[in-house]
Write a structure and sequence with these properties.
With 109 residues, the chain is α+β, with helices and mostly antiparallel strands. The chain is globular, with a radius of gyration of 14 Å.
């Protein structure tokens, strides 16, 4: 299994009211952060783990990872809907003001 820890803050974006420029900047940052992920043989399972002081509900957690997921899929050379890649989402509680993302990639789907 390959593990990457990135200093990203995954936020609830579904109900967030913000300027389009701020959202675009966050999307660009998340896609750029995916450059840390090295290509991996397919099929594989990609587990995206949000580390934060508070948990989000499942749909907001998944939506918050959209740009990072797109970037990782691009690094793997596939579309994020490709059936050879299975996406899993999870959350872990971090200390106060500690935000991060852990990406785990393992073989098999």
């Amino acid at each position: 299994m390959t593990v990457y820890d990135l200093p990203l803050r995954i936020e609830s974006t579904l109900n967030k009211r913000e300027h389009w420029g701020k959202r675009a900047q966050r999307t660009k940052l998340h896609r750029f952060a995916s450059i840390a992920v090295q290509p991996h043989p397919l099929p594989c399972v990609v587990r995206l783990i949000r580390i934060a002081p508070r948990k989000l509900d499942d749909d907001n957690n998944t939506a918050g990872f959209k740009a990072l997921r797109d970037g990782i899929a691009k690094r793997l050379g596939v579309d994020d809907a490709d059936p050879r890649v299975r996406w899993e989402y999870d959350q872990e509680r971090g200390r106060a003001k500690e935000y991060a993302v852990r990406i785990e990639i393992r073989g098999g789907a």
